[in-house]
Write a structure and sequence with these properties.
The chain is α+β, with helices and mostly antiparallel strands and 693 residues long. 27% of the residues lie in helices and 20% in strands. InterPro entries: DNA_ligase_ATP-dep_cent, Dual-sp_phosphatase_cat-dom, mRNA_cap_enz_bifunc, mRNA_cap_enzyme_adenylation, mRNA_cap_enzyme_C, mRNA_Capping_Enz/RNA_Phosphat, NA-bd_OB-fold, Prot-tyrosine_phosphatase-like.
Length: 693
């Protein structure tokens, strides 16, 4: 047997034999060939196939995906949980859904336009692509400048189609099915409506639920109206409007309105209802989720946990909106916004009381209040919402209502717009029930309805705060409580609001001995406010704070470098290493877990070490070096409670104080006869009983 010989072919193999021999003439080679002439049908089929191949190359994400093989006994799980859909087919109900509605302001609600990849599924008369959109809107005199896409997929059309026509495109992913758009998505949507000179096409899959939800938010924040009115406006422009009950319920809950009993959700449109079930009678989900399952809702989730000062309140807002609000704050506070200043918190900061600045109490007229151990916030009130401003100069929106003008009955006709406040958020604990309640204590007013008041004396701003901000709100709230079927529900707001009280220096003893121990929230000292002072942004040398000796503290940046524990402050905007300063943590604390965080520390005189009290989640930078020096001086001077009270006892006997205290006391007694809405929890004690008789 020749091992080098070629193997014999198997029975089912055959050797290739050409149809012509090598010596055949050329004309003999072509004698069996018949020329093929393309018919019109062949040309159409070939062009269609070429178009398909071209579209596949241009849009690779539209190619069908292939599922991995699953065992047959997993067919139930596959049908219910891993179901995928052919991306080339139409969204259920899309074909017979009306293409668009009437304009609402500058917005046109629409169903999603479908690209050419879907043409094989749509008869020519039913097609609705970007070309049809532009043409149909031009016919009715609307020139589009922006398209806002609320679907949760990118498979319906190519974004470049809009851009080639000079139309801007914004994508805001919103889940369909059982989810309403998130609050951050609503903020992004509203930020795109500012100063639009051209029309905006807003679409989800069918242009009803998510589109309606967004447009109704726009109406609620630009025109003073009820949720029911806004829902009707959208329904009239895009019949039948929102037809999912959870979307309507979410709108009433968001704006803290009571849903009227007569309000009913429209039934599902016929064009949607007819396609909502498959051949097995199972409901079909909206198709714009790309097969991504919706997160399950935990019905047992407890949303009312223990409140802390570290809780993050409100919803984030787009950066361009935040930048605009920052500019307003700087203008209202008469500050020039430099490059670095744009990100620096502009609120007024007190300085620690020492023996040197203690003499200011003898030179100027001061009032006193307690220093609450809460979280510092400025607040910007606009007609489209309230914005808490933290120490990092970051804005977060909360749904609150601040009426401006008092009305006879019901809701006020006007609300505050660009009113700027300063205050602190505290957590009250009701003594009897131990129930927690968040409260915002307002202690200053810097702007009211676009008008800056920072140059007015404090006593004027304090009175304006009560008359223009607090009283209208309390009055409206009291009127609403008397009605059983009022629309707005103040009880659903995230926190309550009150003006913080200030008292004569002659009441400081009772403040320390009686008032502070009975507070329903923590307090760590006193604040002395100049009665005639303007509002001074950032460090205010005339605004004094006194803390109990054990609570004098400095905020450091703590870092671990190998085995070294380092403390940093800020000096001229840069980190400054504090050599020689030591820090101590609790026995059960791993210092490495605090690395990179801002820690508030109190000074232990005996051990000569800084003791970590807590992490400051509300701050992104440590104290300035000058602040550190002032705190050290305050600690060194050791102005105890006894020393402070002795000094104040002498100060109030000065003629400057004695005459004015007598005058102010009469004014307070006269004003205290007016009916007041009691807010806050202080057991068995009234601030006015501190005044001398």
């Amino acid at each position: 047997m020749d091992l080098n010989a070629s193997p014999e072919p198997e029975e089912d193999e055959g050797t290739f034999e050409p149809n012509f021999s090598e010596d055949s003439a050329p004309e003999e080679k072509h004698s069996h060939h018949v020329d093929h002439v393309e018919t019109a049908v062949d040309i159409m089929r070939r062009e269609r196939e070429e178009r398909k191949q071209r579209l596949k190359r241009e849009r690779p994400d539209d190619r069908p995906t292939h599922q991995a093989y699953r065992p047959m006994n997993d067919h139930v799980f596959q049908a219910k949980h891993q179901r995928t859909y052919d991306k080339s087919r139409l969204p259920p109900g899309w074909l017979d859904c009306p293409p668009y509605g009437q304009e609402i302001g500058c917005m046109v609600p629409s169903k999603v336009p479908l690209g050419e990849a879907f043409n094989d599924c749509i008869v020519p008369g039913k097609r609705y692509s970007f070309r049809q959109v532009i043409h149909q809107q031009r016919v009715v005199g609307r020139k589009l400048g922006l398209v806002i896409d609320l679907t949760n997929t990118t498979r319906y059309y190519s974004v470049n189609d809009w851009k080639k026509e000079g139309i801007k495109y914004v994508k805001i992913n919103c889940k369909g099915r059982g989810s309403v758009p998130e609050n951050e998505a609503v903020s992004q949507f509203l930020a795109r409506q500012k100063n639009s000179k051209k029309y905006i096409l807003v679409h989800c899959t069918h242009g009803h639920n998510r589109t309606g939800y967004m447009i109704i938010h726009y109406l609620m924040r630009t025109v003073l109206m009820s949720v029911a009115q806004a829902i009707k406006i959208f329904a009239d422009a895009r019949p039948p409007g929102i037809y999912k009950p959870d979307y309507i319920d979410a709108l009433y809950a968001f704006y803290h309105e009571r849903k009227p009993d007569l309000v009913t959700c429209p039934s599902t449109p016929e064009w949607k209802r007819s396609s909502e079930f498959d051949l097995n009678g199972e409901a079909l989900p909206d198709e714009d989720d790309d097969g991504v399952p919706v997160d399950p809702v935990d019905e047992n989730h407890d949303t009312e946990g223990v409140m802390t000062n570290d809780d993050v309140l409100g919803d984030s807002i787009p950066q361009d909106q935040q930048d605009a609000f920052r500019q307003f704050c700087y203008q209202a506070l008469k500050l020039s916004a430099g490059v670095r200043g744009n990100h620096q918190f502009p609120g007024s900061h007190p300085v620690s009381l020492d023996r040197e600045n203690l003499q200011l109490l003898r030179q100027r007229y001061y009032y006193a209040t307690w220093k609450a151990d809460g979280t510092r916030y400025m607040m910007l009130i606009t007609m489209d919402g309230c914005y808490l401003i933290d120490r990092n100069f970051v804005f977060r929106r909360v749904q609150m209502r601040f009426p401006w003008k008092l009305s006879g009955e019901g809701l006020a006709e006007k609300v505050h717009h660009f009113t700027l406040l300063d205050g602190e958020m505290i957590i009250d604990t009701v003594p009897d029930t131990r129930k927690q309640e968040r409260r915002y204590l307002i202690y200053d007013l810097m702007a009211i309805n676009h008008v800056s008041v920072v140059e007015r004396p404090f006593y004027e701003r304090w009175k304006m705060l009560e008359k223009e901000v607090v009283e209208p709100r309390n009055y409206e709230r009291a009127r609403i409580c008397q009605k059983q079927h009022s629309l707005y529900r103040y009880d659903l707001e995230p926190f309550r609001v009150r003006r913080k009280d200030f008292w004569l220096l002659s009441t400081v003893t009772k403040l320390l001995k009686e008032f502070i121990p009975r507070l329903s929230h923590d307090a760590d000292g006193l604040v002395f406010q100049g009665w005639d002072d303007p509002y001074v942004p950032r460090t205010h040398e005339g605004l004094l704070k006194w803390k109990y000796a054990s609570m004098n503290s400095v905020d450091f940046l703590f870092e671990m470098a190998e085995d070294r524990q380092l403390l940093f402050l800020h000096e001229r905007g840069k980190k400054k290493l504090m050599e020689g300063n030591r820090i101590a943590f609790g026995d059960d604390v791993d210092p490495a877990s605090y690395s990179g965080k801002i820690v508030e520390c109190a000074w232990n005189k005996e051990e000569e070490v800084w003791v970590c009290m807590r992490v400051r989640t509300d701050k992104a930078t440590p104290n300035d070096f000058n602040t550190y020096r002032k705190v050290l001086r305050s600690i060194k001077d050791n102005i105890t409670e006894e020393v402070l009270l002795d000094e104040i006892h002498e100060i109030i006997r000065l003629p400057m104080y004695a005459d004015r205290i007598k005058q102010d006391s009469k004014g307070h007694h006269h004003s205290s006869t007016r009916p007041k809405v009691r807010m806050g929890f202080v057991q068995n004690i009234s601030p006015w009983q501190f005044l001398p008789t």
